[in-house]
Amino acid sequence: MSEPKSSVRSRTAPRQALEAVMADKAGNPLRRALWLDALDRQLRPHLPPALANRCRLANVDGEHLVFLVESPVWHAKVRLAEGQLLDAARSIGLAATRVTVKTATAPAPSPVRNDQRSTHAVTDATHKGLRDALACLADVKGTRS
C-alpha cells in the first residue's frame, strides 16, 4: 500500500524549501555557515584534547581564524594554545597566521552536544507557522515555473 501523497509532500517540503533558499543568492550566508561548521568538525580532532570541546571555530577570514569560547578562563587557555591551533589549522590546509578568541555570553553550541535531541516542546502555533511558510514557498516556486 502506498503512502498518501500529502504525507510524502510534508516530508519533502522542508527539503524543497532548503533547495529554494540555497539556489538563490540569499543562500550565501547559509552556505558559509555550513562550510564553517564542516571546517570546525574537520579541525576539532586536531585540537588539543582539553580545548576540543571548549572552543568552536566561528570564522575564517583569509589567514585569520576566530574561535568562540564560553568563558574567560577558556579564552585564556585558547590564547595560550595559539601555536597549536595554527598548526592544527595548517594541517587541514588552511593558511592560518593569526588567531582571535571571542567569549560568548551564552555557551556555544557544540557539535558534540548537538547529537542529542532537543527537549524543548514545539507549540502547535509554531508548527502551523512553519507549515504556512512552507506553503508560501511552494506557491512562489509554482508561479516561477
Assembly status = single chain
Helix and strand succession?
HHHEEHHEH
Strand order of the largest sheet: 1-2-3
Q: Supply the helix-strand structural class.
A: alpha+beta
| Helicity, as a percent range | 40-55%
Low-confidence stretches: none
- Tell me the radius of gyration: 20 Å
Largest sheet composition: 3 strands, mixed
Q: Which whole number gives the mean pLDDT?
A: 79
Number of strands: 3
The general outline is elongated
Proportion in β-strands: 5-15%
What report would you give on this structure?
With 145 residues, this protein is an alpha+beta fold. It contains six helices and three strands; from the N terminus they run αααββααβα. The protein has helices spanning 5-23, 28-43, 49-52, 72-80, 82-91, 124-144; strands spanning 55-61, 64-69, 98-103. A three-stranded mixed β-sheet has the order 1-2-3. The model has no long low-confidence stretch (mean pLDDT 79).
